[in-house]
Each structure stands twice: as C-alpha cells, then as structure tokens.
Amino acid sequence: MKKINRLLYSNKLFAFIMLLLQIAVFVAMFIWISDYSVAITGFSTVLSAILVIYEINRTEESTFKMTWITLISIIPIFGALFYIYTRARTITRNIRDDYTRAQELNKKYLPRDEEVMKNLALLDKREYSFAGYLEKYGGSPAFSNTAVQYYPIGEKMYEDMKKELLKAERFIFMEFFIINSADKMWREVLEILRQKVKQGVEVRLMYDAMGCLTTLPVRYNETLERYGIKCRVFSPIVPLISTHQNNRDHRKIVVIDGKTAFSGGINLADEYINQKERFGHWKDTGIMLKGDAVAGYTAMFFEMWNVNNESIEDGGEYINASKGNPADAAGFVIPFGDTPLDDIYVGKRAYIHNLDNASEYTYIMTPYLVIDDEMFESMKYAAQRGVDVKIIMPHIPDKPYAFYLARTYYKELLDVGIEIYEYTPGFVHAKMSISDGRKAIVGTINHDYRSLYLHYECAAYMVDVPAVIDIERDFKDTLALSQKITYEDIKKFNPFTKLLGHVMRLIAPLI
Q: Which of 274, 281, 505, 315 lies closest to 410 in space, CA to CA?
C-alpha cells in the first residue's frame, strides 16, 4: 500500500500515462486516423521545436538541458507533455516570494561580524572570500565562538539530542524530511515534546509532505496541534498535481532555546539509529552546535516556516536568543542553506570549493553519486594536481536504481586517479566533505542532482574547528570497514545492472 501511495503522488504516474498516450498516438496514426497523421506529426514537431528552443535559452545547468532536449526529440509527445507538466509547477511564485522575504527579514538579525571576518582574512584570503559568498547566497554570516560536536553515528547524536530537548526552557524548533510515527525514535521524542509543552515551552515542528507520506497518518499535523505543538507541513501533496520528485524540504534541523542546534543526515526514524535494520548497518553522521552559529540554523528554520504562510513572521526574537551564549571554541562555522528558487547552487559550490582549494586531500562520504560535468572536472583536476581524493559509497543501497547509476561513474573516476570505496557493513547515509584537516562540510546535501539543484538543503561549513579532527578520524575508521573498488570489481558487476545504469544516465537529472 505504501508503494501504491508513493506512485499515486509521484511523477512516475504522470510519466506512465504520457507514455501510454505516446503509444496510443503511434498506434492511432498507423491504424485508424491515418488521414490526420500529418497534422498530428506537424503539431508535435512544432511544439517540440518551440520547447527545445525555449530550453536551450534557459539559464540552467547544461546536463538538465541535454536531458530534456533528448526526451523531447526522441519521444516528442511524451517528452513535450512531461516537460510542460514538470516545468509548469516546479516552483510557484508565492513560494519564491515568501522565502525571499523571510530571508531578507532575517538578515537584519544576522549582521556580519567584522572582527570575525578580519580574523578569517588574516588566516586565509580564500576562506574569507568564500565566507562572503556563503553569507550573501547561503543566508548566514561566519561565526566564531561556536563549539561543534561531531557524531560518527546516528544513535550517539540521538541520545544527546534527547538530553538537550529535556533541558529546553523557552522554545524547540524541529524541521525534518522524514518522521515515522510508528518508530521508537519518534515516540520518545514526541513524549519529550508533549512534556515540554505542558511546561510552557513553545514547540514548533515542520515536516515534508512527501517524505512523510507513508510514515505519518493523514492530517497528522492536526494531531500534533491538539498536543499543543505548532505544526506545518511543507508542500502538501495532491495526486498528479504535486510530486515528491521536485523541490522537497530535505533539511534536518533542531534548535533549542537558541543555545543548541543539531543537523546532519539523521531523520526521525529507527533505521537512522540502527534500531531497525533495512540495508545492513546504517552509517550516518551529524553535528551539535553550541554558541553564536546556532542563530544561523534558527534563521534557516524561519525561512521554511514562512513558506506558504498568510503573513511573514518576524523570527528576530528567536534568532537573537543565540546572542549572549558564546562558546569558548576555536575556528569558524558558517551555517548555510540552499534552495531551488534561484540559479545559485550553494551546496555544489561548497563541495567544489573544498576540492579546488585542497592541497593534500579531499575525502567525501555520500549515499548517492550522480555528478555533473563541473563536479567531475573539479574532482579530476584535484586528483591531477596530486590531491588524494577518496569517496565512500554504500555497499548495500536503499535505492538500487540510484546505486546502479552511481556505479557508472566508477571507471571514469578511477581513470583520473580517484579512489572509490563501498561501506561493506551496509548503507552510508552520511553527507560530508573534508579537506586538508582544516575544512569540512556536514549537513543534508548529497552528491546528486536532487540535492545540488532541486531540494531545500542545509549544512555547516567549518574552518579550523577542532571537530574537523574527529571528522577525519571517522572517515578513516569508515574506510577501514570499506571495500576498495578496482577495475576487476567493475568487470564483475552484473551486466544487466551496468546497462541499466548507463541507460539511466540519460535521465540522471530527473531521478
């Protein structure tokens, strides 16, 4: 039933209907409406030409253009109608306006700390410049006075998160892609939230409609409201009108009293803390922040909270709650968000920045690997400069089709000197990049088109933070449990899945 529900609310159903229509038109043209076949073909050709010209002139990543132009040209009726269906409702003007207004409102509560930027410039001009980019387009300035705790596994972060939730005195904000109401993890969190509401703590929760389609009851937000929890559902879904494929809220954020923030790859479901086994051992990562940089995560929460709201709520009181709670810690932390509302790909830029500015190594851990030409060229250039580039992937995938697609990149990466590893105990869900023992990114952003171009995401960019040592240690510990992929391994991959993966590269940006 869960699979049926996902199908009803996905692009797959519309695509299937369009394919049937394409077949029906072909059959009709050759059987019983041959007299009109010239007109139908002419209309289809003109429509396809218009859409191809329109797509060529769009400001967009070239791989997306190539995918759409190929579909429209090879399968004209299906391609054209699917293109119109998808493009017509990717992002509404209201969502863009709400998000932009909320971000602009937040900026007055997130002023640049000139002393922080001065110190960053003295340390490294390139990092100073990149911090300015993240401030302008990622929504948050650089912070010092922030302690970072890195978690190499979900269950460790979960235990600390519960302890911090129990300490809440003023407010708790939570934003998640997936919550499973049947699981122990959420039941325990919900019990704490209900307890805190009774104590007078303000509790707000936001979850993604598609992410929770099969894990939460219908209108679960109303149930939470009855408990006294303010709840919003991001992008409610309607069959054939909404889609889980595009522009979902993939962020994971917890903010407590403006003093503490959690983020990373960990959702509120038991597999993320290995209470339930789905794909072998689940390897995930996360961070806890204490200090000034918590304000950045509070601001990001309000960006999404204000989407599709009747009025834009001023979150200044809550953002300012982080002031006066500095942590005595070294380094710089920049929380940043990424959205599909513009043509600025902040998450992608952060990963490429780590690659392009590395002198010794860049280590990457990701559950999915679907990379565009620019990302591949950055990886290739780093390796050709003598930078040690290593990537850890899952060995047991959660989505076989994405796994087969990812494996099609292996040979190209090996050819340029990049090392690929698969985590043999199970599934890697961690999203991180670390370079030269100084700079690291931990958050929700996968190395695939969906995260880098289409979803709402978040992460922390860290420079000279002590926790970077822990991140590097975790990568090496995970490496010791992983299988290094060789050319011989690639030759042994199942021929059918290899072929399927290469065919799927045609539509990689849409997966």
A: 505
